[in-house]
């Protein structure tokens, strides 16, 4: 089996409630984080059509990350945490 893993850090399975915050906080979309690493996550939405390429992902515990969508399906997005980049 070939390993096509391109991530810098391994992702761990997760089941966390979250919210995508867009338009400077004027719109939000409920979501579930299905896996998580220091540098990104796989996020599940009811529908990804209205999810922009950049948004803020806020977790129930109050932590949040600025995100860039790296891939997209009708119900899921893979995001990179922009605030986790090493300069």
Summarize the structure.
The chain is an all-beta fold.
Explain the overall architecture.
A hairpin with a 4-residue loop joins strand 4 (54-59) and strand 5. The protein has a single domain, classed as Thrombin, subunit H. It is 0% helix and 54% strand. By secondary structure, it is mainly β. Mean pLDDT is 87; it is low at 1-5.
The CATH level-2 architecture is identified as Beta Barrel
SS strand fraction: over 45%
Cross-sheet strand order for the largest sheet: 1-2-3-6-5-4
For the terminal residues, how far apart are their CA atoms? 34 Å
Give average pLDDT, whole number.
Answer: 87
Number of strands: 6
Count of alpha and pi helical runs: 0
Domains, number: 1
Give the H and E element order: EEEEEE
Shape: globular
Helical content class: under 10%
GO molecular function: cyclic-di-GMP binding
Pfam family, one: PilZ
Domain PilZ: 5-84
Protein name: PilZ domain-containing protein
Protein topology:
Layout (H helix, E strand, L loop, with lengths): L11 E11 L4 E10 L3 E5 L9 E6 L4 E9 L3 E6 L6
Antiparallel strand pairs: 1-2, 1-4, 2-3, 3-6, 4-5, 5-6
InterPro entries: PilZ_domain
Pfam families: PilZ
Organism: Rhizobium glycinendophyticum
Q: Which descriptors would you attach to this protein?
A:
mainly beta, 87 residues, globular, cyclic-di-GMP binding, PilZ_domain, PilZ domain-containing protein, 0% helix, Thrombin, subunit H
